[in-house]
Amino acid sequence: MTCTMMSVIKRARVPPYLHRKSNHVYNVWQHLILLTLRQYESKSYRRFVEFLQEAFGVIECLGLSRVPHYTTLQKAAARLTHGILLRILESFVMYARIRKIFAGIDSTGLSHGQASYYYTKRLKLRRKFLKISICADMKKQIICGIKIRHKRRHDSVDFVPLLEHSIRLAPIGIVVADRGCDSEQNHVSAQDIGIANTIIRPKYENLQVHKTKGYNRKMMKRHFDWDEYHQRSKVETIFSVIKRMLGEYIMSRYILTQNRETMYRIIAYDCYRITRNYSVIWHGFYTANVIQFSLKQI
Fold first, then answer.
1. pTM as predicted
2. Secondary element (H or E) of residue 131
3. Would you kindly state where each structural domain of the chain is located, as residue ranges?
4. Which end of the chain is more exposed for a tag (fewer CB within 10 A), N or C?
5. What span, in angstroms and rounded, lies between the C-alpha atoms of 256 and 67?
């Protein structure tokens, strides 16, 4: 995972130092990898530093002279901007060699970790959450774009901005989305930016076609491709992996640090997915060669 992350950072053209007068004890690449690894291990800053003191392989791979203090990682997480993290997230699309995106759009929520569920339920408090909307490739399950919100908004608001951001990385062939994005304007906007095939499940399926508003929404009811639409379930798989492996709550308290923590978590997921995909490919290649060699011996 460390080697994959280093390759992605170099591909994103992130400078090793943000300022020429920095102390040059740790560079930006080391900070990015350590902060991503912290999300992958689902540890606090203090516990992650204790983990690094025993992780000799990580220290040797990154070339660290000593283990950084936990406040060093906290300041680095706040110092690295959202633009740098977004460039790294975009580099995963080029690293995975995605030529055409099979886009799937959906949203989920990450809870805040300050109060327990029992405490909020007992006092009848409204539990806050952080909403993330993603656009991911359904073939390789790589997240291409993300939108973070701290208030309740409709899913349809982020449909077009996610597509506009993702289409700059690679052409989009098909877009699948659930009923929350059902809107005639979303179909028209997707066609305007060069996406011909949009599959959005109608919100009112039992309503007659002649009572449905919009030409594209009527065509969805007449010719709905269920085989292509079922690929959207992979977005739920992405959310399940993120919440089960990396955690379903955010530990940060301020909006700025919550956004940073969410971005590091998405980057950690993409790095895990690419590493897993390549390991599966190499395992299949190795197994095929072993079987072929065994057959020749027979």
1. 0.86
2. strand 129-137
3. 2-80, 99-252
4. C
5. 26
